[in-house]
Design a protein that fits this description.
The chain contains 2 helices and 7 strands, in the order H-E-E-E-E-E-E-E-H. It is α+β, with helices and mostly antiparallel strands and 140 residues long. The N terminus is likely disordered.
Length: 140
């Protein structure tokens, strides 16, 4: 929903996005001031387990970005991928991508097998990571 390339969202833009996302079923899972940057259905793979999940990348107004995944049937949050300075995202094959942290790698696949959606996740995460690093440098 939001543009990860922008250096920051104005209060007006953030408010407009928050109003728009209230109509989504994911709004109940957000904290006050959160804006959904990206949300898609994925298959989350771990060992022999494959689970269908809704993956959300959210820009938290107070605490920064966060990634979490939800069971789309029960609407329960099943876990989160902590945002870290060392977070990395990489395209794999045919709609697959991975999110890597120093202590764990998350293997994900777009439910439709779309390479474009997987690439969108990777580009969005890397752009957001760059934006955050540039903001920190500018503040220092």
């Amino acid at each position: 929903l939001a543009d990860p390339q922008r250096s920051s969202l104005s209060l007006e833009d953030r408010t407009a996005l928050m109003v728009r996302q209230e109509a989504t079923r994911w709004a109940q899972l957000l904290d006050d001031g959160d804006v959904i940057i990206l949300a898609t259905s994925v298959f989350k793979r771990r060992h022999l387990s494959v689970k269908r999940r809704q993956l959300l990348l959210v820009d938290g107004h107070q605490r920064g970005p966060r990634i979490f995944y939800v069971d789309p049937d029960s609407m329960g949050v099943k876990g989160d991928i902590p945002w870290h300075d060392c977070i990395s995202a990489e395209m794999l094959r045919r709609g697959h991508f991975q999110i890597t942290l120093p202590w764990r790698t998350y293997y994900l696949e777009d439910c439709e097998g779309s390479e474009q959606t997987a690439e969108l996740w990777v580009r969005t995460m890397l752009n957001l990571k760059t934006r955050i690093m540039l903001q920190r440098e500018a503040a220092a």
